[in-house]
Write a structure and sequence with these properties.
The complex is a heterodimer of chains A (269) and B (250). With 269 residues, chain A is an all-alpha fold. Chain A is built from 12 helices and no strands. The model of chain A has no long low-confidence stretch (mean pLDDT 86). Chain B has 250 residues and is α/β, with parallel strands linked by helices. Chain B contains 9 helices and 10 strands. In chain B, α4 crosses α5. Chain B starts with 5 loop residues before the first strand and ends with a helix. Classes of the chains: A mainly alpha (269), B alpha/beta (250). At the A-B interface, α7, α8 and α11 of A face α2 of B.
Chain lengths: 269, 250
């Protein structure tokens, strides 16, 4: 049967393409702000949201989005409290997220297939409702990132000078926290909470190795993420693999190949 | 009489209860070239951040173009070059053009609308600093002197009326330093841009500045007549003793 004729796989592709563009675009700002672990913290908080949904009977995906947003606020508050040790904020939120998730999962006796689909990503689990949420929020976030690109660039590069340029830095930081949380929450369906952070960081890591301008960083990062996600979905469909793991492994291979080729080129030159 | 470009009134500042600046009062007029000197840890950078509104003083106030810095909105009038050894990522993956362009900010969405105007301003700033040929180079590919010029062009893209520079030549060799100072003096003399610069290069301050400010032991002493800071003083200043400041003491 032709792979594209299946509505299941169509849904997976739509979700995958949206996810890859979204998460790799946000990932550029996250990595450049030296906050690479923020994806892990937010995704574990979103797992607590999934567990809350399963325990209290609301749609787990909504729980993931709400908990990720709350966690992003908490990270900002803790970052201000631990100004010189901002990574403490990420570790605290990640640990609290796992703790809360485990307690709620055990209370709700929710160790089931649905939970695993959120942990490792799933093609089957993506339903029409998920796609609608992903499309609506995902496209809104991508458009807003495009519109606010100049402000985000200035704040990411040099926050103090951005203030003196007249940019409302606190507002831009808050916006970036919110879109990061949303992007993570929207991506957990396909990639899974355990691996979403990798898709946020690895395409940017590849891009930083080869890009010759800031614009190019986004283009390369988006291409690497798109290729990893689409080929990962195809491979996981045919070989019955967990899509999250497959996608992240492909992205990791690309990074390894780029690093090796660069190393060879430096030695050759 | 025209309003001073910058005025500080009875400014006190402390970090965690430890006072680092006390009762600071001075004015900077249009076209002034003020060099702030002083030993490491004298709170020169803190003073500059107070002037720019990045830090809020415990007491006193800062007026810039006659307006309280807390309510100031005309940011296009101010250019700022921070210390490049600070928090700025020098490996940031952007070209010279992109970095200079990023400072041309006139409000949300306006960057998209005024694309041609923006392009012209960036070109002009790059030309004025003499780095147009570096437009497509990445920041990480540049020397210390070239990087500093990029930051100067970034500040100039808004056509500011006052420039604040925090130790701009600390990572430069002697010829690059000379080149940079000449550029700065040219901007001050030919375009009337007011300059406030923190420097450890006392020779430069003595030669080029119209005012010298000594930051020492929580106080700021302004010398409107640079020549009253004698060469003997300067020699001692190089040893991080600042007797130039002592001439204000009884």
């Amino acid at each position: 049967m032709d792979i594209l004729s299946l509505s299941l796989i169509n849904r997976a592709f739509i979700a995958g393409i949206l996810t890859s563009v979204l998460i790799s675009t946000v990932g550029v700002f996250v990595v450049l702000r030296r906050m690479s672990m923020v994806g892990d913290s937010l995704s574990h908080a979103s797992l607590a949201g999934v567990a809350a949904g399963m325990l209290f009977g609301f749609y787990p995906f909504y729980g993931a989005v709400i908990f990720a947003l709350l966690a992003s606020f908490l990270i900002e508050i803790l970052r201000k409290a631990f100004r010189k040790y901002s990574e403490v904020a990420l570790a605290v939120v990640m640990s609290a997220g796992i703790g809360l998730a485990v307690v709620m999962i055990s209370l709700g006796k929710s160790f089931n297939a649905d939970l695993f689909s959120y942990l490792f990503g799933s093609l089957i689990a993506v339903n029409e409702k998920d796609i609608r949420i992903m499309a609506l929020l995902g496209i809104a976030v991508i458009l807003s990132l495009f519109i606010l690109n100049r402000e985000l660039f200035a704040v990411t590069f040099d926050e103090e000078s951005a203030k003196i340029a007249g940019i409302p830095v606190n507002l831009v930081n808050l916006y970036l926290s919110l879109v990061t949380a949303l992007s993570v929450a929207l991506s957990v369906r396909i990639v899974g909470t355990l691996l979403v952070s990798a898709l946020m960081v690895i395409p940017t890591a590849v891009s930083l190795q080869v890009s010759k301008s800031f614009k190019m960083v986004f283009i390369v990062s988006n291409i690497v993420a798109l290729f990893s996600v689409v080929s990962g979905i195809i491979l996981s469909y045919y070989y019955d693999l967990a899509p999250g793991g497959t996608i992240v492994l492909i992205a990791s291979f690309i990074l390894a190949a780029v690093l090796i080729l660069k190393g060879v080129k430096i030695r050759w030159d | 009489m025209s309003i001073p470009v910058l005025e500080l009134f009875n400014v006190d500042f402390s970090y965690n209860g430890n006072t680092v600046l006390e009762n600071v009062n001075f004015k900077v007029k249009k076209g002034d070239f003020l060099a702030l000197i002083g030993p490491n840890g004298a709170a020169k950078t803190t003073l500059m951040k107070i002037m720019l509104g990045l830090l809020t003083p415990k007491n006193g106030k800062v007026l810039i173009f006659g307006e309280d810095i807390k309510d100031f909105k005309k940011w296009e009038k101010i250019g700022y070059i921070p210390q490049l050894t600070g928090d700025i990522n020098m490996g940031f993956p952007a070209t010279v053009w992109e970095i200079v362009d990023s400072n041309y900010y006139k409000g949300f969405f306006k960057g998209f609308i005024n694309k041609d105007e923006r392009k012209k301003a960036v070109e002009e700033a790059l030309k004025r600093v003499g780095i147009k040929k570096l437009s497509n180079k990445m920041l990480r590919e540049l020397s210390g002197g070239e990087k500093q010029k990029v930051f100067l062009a970034r500040a100039l893209v808004k056509k500011p009326e006052i420039l604040f520079l925090d130790e701009p030549t600390s990572a430069m060799d002697a010829p690059s330093r000379e080149d940079f100072y000449n550029l700065l003096t040219g901007l001050n003399k030919s375009f009337g841009i007011t300059v406030v610069v923190i420097t450890h290069d006392i020779g430069f301050a003595y030669e080029k500045a119209t005012k010298i400010g000594c930051v020492k032991e929580k106080k700021v002493y302004i010398h409107d007549n640079v020549k009253e800071v004698t060469e003997g003083h300067i020699a001692e200043v190089m040893g991080y003793k600042i007797p130039a400041c002592d001439i204000h003491r009884e």
